[in-house]
Amino acid sequence: MNFRIACVVLPTLLLAACGKGDSTGNTSAPAAAPVAGAKAPAGQNWVDVVSRTPEGGYRMGNPDAPVKLIEYGSRSCPHCAAFDAEGVPTLKTGPIAAGKMSYEFRDFPVHGAVDMGPILLGQCVEPAQFFPMLEQMMAAQATLIGRQAKIPDADNARLQTASPGQVAVYLANFYGYTDFVKQRGVPEAKVQACLSDAKALDAIAKQTEAANQKYNVSGTPTFILNGKVVTDVADWAALQPVLKAAGAL
């Protein structure tokens, strides 16, 4: 994936690449009998059990849960922000807390270079802080990504020949993500190290390519339930009956 930036109007970019049209698929499946839950390890709650997966995502909940939900999401995608606000809280207090379901978020740079800074900074925390930071980024998305300021023409011209890492740093600063994470306790030195991590950029590119090859991810959010793509579903209202049919709700 080419993470360079073209001179674009961001709101148009967001509407063009985020979401997958009508979310009407999979809504007629009958509800299944609830699957069995499991107790969390002593002294822990399943929502606090978070680990990084080999695919580069972060999984919350019982790793052996019978229902496994994966979201390929973008931190600059309004549909993903809506799902994080509308669906994730119910999942956390319901099937995840009960040990019935695990939820994994995999960053997917659907908007290319625009997403790279937020991804690098969003993963610049310990696993236990990944989801709180993700939640806060999603909640602030309209303020950060939705700003009306335009990249100056001179800067945009320089970005055309800049390295992917340089573009990520510029956009992270331009949209306010650098200050955002520093205000939430990430030290300046760590912020700069994460933004300049060439290996991390390469890993994101490889993970994105792997997602495209395996699941043909064409928009965000894309949901994977027990290893299969949930087609034509891009919001919480449409996902609920799918999870009911799987016995999670």
Automatic annotation (TrEMBL):
<dbReference type="InterPro" id="IPR036249">
    <property type="entry name" value="Thioredoxin-like_sf"/>
</dbReference>
<feature type="signal peptide">
    <location>
        <begin position="1"/>
        <end position="16"/>
    </location>
</feature>
<keyword id="KW-0732">Signal</keyword>
<dbReference type="Pfam" id="PF13462">
    <property type="entry name" value="Thioredoxin_4"/>
</dbReference>
<dbReference type="InterPro" id="IPR012336">
    <property type="entry name" value="Thioredoxin-like_fold"/>
</dbReference>
<feature type="domain" description="Thioredoxin-like fold">
    <location>
        <begin position="56"/>
        <end position="244"/>
    </location>
</feature>
<protein>
    <submittedName>
        <fullName>Thioredoxin domain-containing protein</fullName>
    </submittedName>
</protein>
